[in-house]
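Subject: 4-hydroxy-tetrahydrodipicolinate synthase structure
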Amino acid sequence: MFTGSLVAIVTPFKNGKLDEQSLGDLIEWQITSGTHGIVPCGTTGESATLTHAEHDRVVAFTVEVARRRVPVIAGTGSNSTAEAIALTKHAKAAGADGALLITPYYNKPTQEGLFLHYKAVAEAVDLPLVLYNIPGRTGVNMMPSTVSRLTVCPTIVAIKEGSGSVQQASEIIQLCGERLAVLAGDDALTLPMMAVGGKGVITVTANLVPSDMAELVNAFLAGRVDDARAKHYRLYPLFTALFYETNPIPVKEALHMMGKIDREMRLPLCPMGIDNREKLRHAMKEAGLV
């Protein structure tokens, strides 16, 4: 159901508040540039420091601006199952096409706890769900066997696999087959994961180069592997540069350099260090973005 280059879009702020003008401009730019879907309120969207009212507004606003031209997959994950259900219910009511649910963080549930968490959300809200596994940020790795168990829930349609392991992605694909679409959670692994059966990526880099990320995925899906590989290597310096510091610090700095948003973010995220900022600027110049 969800394939291609799906942008994990930033949440622009200005003077401590949502900057809807900039967000709307970013969404329009993404859609006209060929991005296959918009993912608001993910990690890149600073969901951890949005109030519930802001979270709801970002999702509803994104749906309004997208106008069904591309799918909107709202980030609705939480380390509280009840809160995840509430956020997912709002996403459905707002008209989102799906929801992205990060594994519960900090409380480190067992594999059985993960299964019960996602099953509870799937049973409570009739909306296509994308699992999100990123153990480097949550402290828990959802194993392929658990992912496979969750395919008994018909509304669980995809996983954003951010473990950094192509081997783990391969095992998920082998166990789940066509029952579940696997999307890369690491931009640099988009091509390798598609080579083993992945269907695309939920991407940070598309915030800066939406057409390039869409073309990479389109080329591979069309069987133009050499073109996809060439695009991968052209983008690889950006893949690296956008993680010089904790995401989304570099991507917000980069969008600021491009004149698209203010660099403002919320504590405990802070402005990029001077040395890393200059390294990022160099990578942006090499990519022709500044």
